[in-house]
Amino acid sequence: MLRSKLLLAALSVAALGSACAPVVGQNGFQAIDAKPTDIVAGTDTKQTVLGKLGTPSTTSTFERDNVWYYVSQVTEKYTYNRPQVTQRSVTEITFNDSGQVAEVRTLGLEDGQQIAMNGRETPTRGRQLTILEQLLGNVGRGQLPRTEEDIPGQRRPD
């Protein structure tokens, strides 16, 4: 009896302890053979970077061929909470016009900025419809065919 109570207590403590452990997720670029820090400015080219790191996570919007980004992040999620980003790495590789690496920058989580979203909405013309008006708004608006020529799917006599 005492042994079964101890076993039940140990199992419940283990279950509660595992419920508090975070679920860790790794997203984005994952270095396998080479790391972004292995890229050397002035010696590597676009082809060698593609060979070492693979295709970039994204490219620059305005300089698509000259700036590549390799992005990775680690998130932790506890039971009912939103995932929290605990680690982020953004490697920016800039190429010159001849295709050689001009600069390699590595940015972390601390380099990011929080952007406050603006909750205002642009007003639209017209009036707000209630749910009933939306559901029943088109009832009775359909027109019945006035003549035989208006019936869809039938040929007009020539």
Distance from N terminus to C terminus (CA atoms, Å) equals 97 Å
β-strand amount: 15-25%
Quaternary structure classification? single chain
Rg from Cα: 31 Å
Q: Strand count, sense and closure of the main sheet?
A: 5 strands, antiparallel
How many strand units? 5
Shape: flat
Describe the protein's architecture and organization.
- The protein has helices at 2-19, 46-53, 131-136, and strands at residues 23-28, 58-59, 67-77, 84-95, 101-108.
- The longest helix is centred in the N-terminal third of the chain and has 18 residues, at 2-19.
- The protein is built from 3 helices and 5 strands, in the order αβαββββα.
- Strands 1, 2, 3, 4 and 5 form a 5-stranded antiparallel β-sheet that branches.
- 20% of the residues lie in helices and 25% in strands.
- A hairpin with a 7-residue loop joins strand 2 (58-59) and strand 3.
- It is an alpha+beta fold.
Could you name the key traits of this structure?
single chain, 158 residues, alpha+beta, five-stranded antiparallel sheet, 3 helices, flat
